[in-house]
Amino acid sequence: MGRFHRHDDDTGHGHGHGHGHEHEHDGGHSHEPEADLHGDHSGYATGADRIVVLERIFDENDRRAAENRERLDRAGVLTLNLMSSPGAGKTTVLERTLAAVPDPGRIGIIEGDIETSIDADRLSAVGARVSLLNTANGFGGECHLDAPMVANALDRLDLEGLDLLFVENVGNLVCPAEFDVGAHRSVMVYAITEGEEKPLKYPVMFRAVDAVIVNKMDLLPHLDFDLELFEKNLQTVNPGVETIQVSARTGTGMDAWLAWLRRAER
Ligand SMILES: Nc1nc2c(ncn2[C@@H]2O[C@H](COP(=O)(O)OP(=O)(O)O)[C@@H](O)[C@H]2O)c(=O)[nH]1
Ligand SMILES: [Mg+2]
User: Fold this and answer.
1) Which of 40, 112, 152, 233 shows its CA 20 to 30 Å from the CA of 75?
2) Is residue 173 part of a domain?
3) Position 143 pLDDT exceeds 70
4) Is the C-beta atom of 215 inside 6 A of ligand 1?
5) What b-and-e string marks burial along 48-79, b requiring 16 or more CB atoms within 10 Å of the CB?
6) In angstroms, what is the C-alpha Rg of the chain?
7) How far apart are alpha carbons 261 and 266 in whole angstroms?
8) pLDDT digits over 1-46, tens only?
9) What is the residue range of 74's domain?
10) How many domains is the chain partitioned into structurally?
11) Could you tell me the CATH number of the domain that includes residue 231?
């Protein structure tokens, strides 16, 4: 699934605000095959049938995501989908966040990894309630989480005991943005070691988020990273998106991130 993309102009599905499907459907045949094939990197002209199947998978995912969101709304648990490339610092930001709150046991984490419980263990160790999803374990080793997987993880959490839930998505700059998991907000962690141009190269991800945590700021003196150019590229693909500069290593900027979280909770 992760190889397939939605249309470039379909920017809404990464948001977790419960809005409806933006495609027009007339029995599933509303798309021109040629127009759809631009997102398929296999190089084979496979025609409309497969596109119809993919649209149904996305529709089913959106339906299940809406169910997850309703369930989380009923329990009063604000849920954030945290995405990034591998190693940008999602888990470290979460560790810092948990360390800063009075009762980390009221924060849940759905930890998405292809394999291992390394991050789940790190976050349990700082007091979070963690539900682990290894996509290699029954989910085909997917490069993202989807709404049915998250529903499965929700079953293993005591939602009534939580105020806040983070979904640490699988580290990947492409696939996770295409699947609504039922979160209320989406946030990206971006490390300044990744370069200035990635918003232009991976616009679907950068458009899908409500805020970007710009991490590893402690490394700025050692890099030739152009912060202004990065911000300009980011604003080009997602005008008005908020950025929060932090170093999850030193803790600098975490106050601004925590303030953003408090605003999101309202
Ligand atoms: N220098 C520096 N390293 C960081 C920072 N945040 C995370 N790291 C390191 O980056 C690596 C990946 O971090 P991790 O939180 O596991 O990233 P994840 O894969 O996105 O969850 C680890 O070695 C972290 O210690 C930071 O702000 N500054
Ligand atoms: Mg991690």
Assistant:
1) 112
2) yes
3) yes
4) yes
5) eebbbebbeebeebbebbbebbebbeebebbb
6) 18
7) 9
8) 443 445 444 434 434 433 333 333 333 333 444 444 445 556 666 6
9) 62-265
10) 1
11) 3.40.50.300
Q: Could you tell me the strand order of the sheet in which 129-134 lies?
A: 129-134, 107-113, 164-168, 78-83, 185-191, 211-215, 242-245
Output the CA 55–ligand 1 centroid distance in Å. Answer: 36
Residue ranges of E strands in 107-162: 107-113, 129-134
- In tens, the pLDDT along 17-27 reads 333 333 333 33
Mean pLDDT of 178-195: 98
The response to whether residue 141 sits with its C-beta less than 6 Å from ligand 1 reads no
Contact 15, 208 (CB under 8 A): yes
Q: Is residue 18 part of a domain?
A: no
Q: Is the pLDDT at 64 greater than 80, yes or no? A: yes
To test the pocket of ligand 1, the residue of 92, 96, 97 to mutate (highest count of ligand atoms within 8 Å of its CB) is 92
Q: Pull the structure tokens for residue 104.
A: 């980390």
Give nearest CA residue, ligand 1 atom 12.
87
Q: Which helix (H) or strand (E) segment is 228 a member of?
A: helix 227-237
